Amino acid sequence: MNILLVGSGGREHALAWKIKQSPLLTRLVAAPGNPGIASLCETRPVPATDVEGLVALAREMAADLVVVGPESALEVGLADRLASAGIPCFGPTAAAARLETSKAFSKDFCARHNLPTAAFGVFDTVDAAGAFLDAQTAPYVIKADGLAAGKGVVIAATRAEADAAVADMLGGLFGQAGARVVIEEFMPGEEVSLFALCDGETAVPFGFAQDHKRAYDGDLGPNTGGMGTYSPAPVLTDALARRAFEECILPAVRGMAAEGTPYRGVIYAGLMLTPQGPRLVEFNARFGDPECQVLMLRLESDIVPYLMAAATGTLGASPPPVWRDEAALCVVIAAGGYPQSPVSGAIIRGADGPDQGHAVVFHAGTARDPDGVLRAAGGRVLNICASGASLAEARDRAYGRIGDIDFPGGFFRSDIGWRAL
Ligand code: AMP
Ligand code: GLY
């Protein structure tokens, strides 16, 4: 099979690493890819949002399947365009991806289908938002409606902070993405990321992980895209995972089909494990990053038949995926200044080379000079991952591998996995 993989982060490096292990693979091309992905397969400099460029590339390489990593490509309709070109695509259409790309759509959808989530209101004026806030108590949860690169959510401890967040968003801080704001009830609890593959009609559980969203040790500092993950997460027992799948994911997939926007690809339910049970924080239309990295380390089954079955509507006939009876853990090394203003350009040594024992280095935000020198070129730069018989062993191996890496100015959390350990 010829596969085109779209994206350029650590999530896509992990997908490329796993797809490469498939005996079904003839040729893998990544667009645009990154230096880590380039050590595994061919890369082409076509951006993830260049829909016409990607369709042309898929045709040129006679792709049997296109695997879409990032939501940005889904939002601009890559899956729609591939469908009209007759090329199977792992990833939802723009209409189905609104589960992630519009928080207002997603919350209204949850209400229409009785999915457990926080009470909410959607507003486009400061006065209306203020009136709703009058009826809430702290902490206040304020979200920009559209995609805001992970920065569009404010958990405000005081009413003054909440008012300021509303004014910023409606005032244009995130452009069109903040033209409407969603204000939500605060849900207490531990967060987990639950994944399922969907083929438009059915869904199959596809693992879960726990992320660390805050930048610094002890869950302090600003919110980020995720500083580290581990899987499995003991807090999500088998019974809770089954309940979340049945209460949050299955009705969502059925609801999308019933509304004429069948969902294909991976659905990512961000869950809060509240005293009342699992409740949805959000849906995402893609694999989590860096959740995908630990899932790929733990997945025993060949991933390619699952990606293809989701893309072509044949998941119902697939056996359940098999997971290794091992733990996996991922530590993100970020550039100094992340998430506000990451510093690019530092020279990185010790990240290249073959996988060492049970440790794997995925590239998230790197660039390579023509002479081969590797540099930081993003916020989250490297993902140091490892598996082990226990979570503690996986952690020790991942942090052990970090010891071989020289990245001036880079920083990472030293407590990934603390809740489970
Ligand atoms: P989101 O972009 O919607 O995932 O929100 C970012 C983070 O804000 C989440 O990962 C949660 O930690 C937190 N969060 C969002 N909504 C809520 C809520 N209703 N209650 C509590 N925490 C929330
Ligand atoms: N790690 C969280 C996300 O991918 O949204």
Tell me what the structure shows.
It is built from 13 helices and 22 strands. The protein has 421 residues and is an alpha+beta fold. The protein folds into four domains: 89 residues, Rossmann fold, CATH 3.40.50; 66 residues, Dna Ligase, domain 1 (2-Layer Sandwich); 128 residues, 2-Layer Sandwich (D-amino Acid Aminotransferase, Chain A, domain 1); 76 residues, Glycinamide Ribonucleotide Synthetase, Chain A, domain 4, CATH 3.90.600.10. The chain has an eight-stranded antiparallel β-sheet, with helices on both faces. Strands 3-2-1-4-5 form a five-stranded parallel β-sheet, with helices on both faces. Helix 6 packs across helix 7. The site of adenosine monophosphate has 15 residues, from strand 7, strand 8 and strand 16.
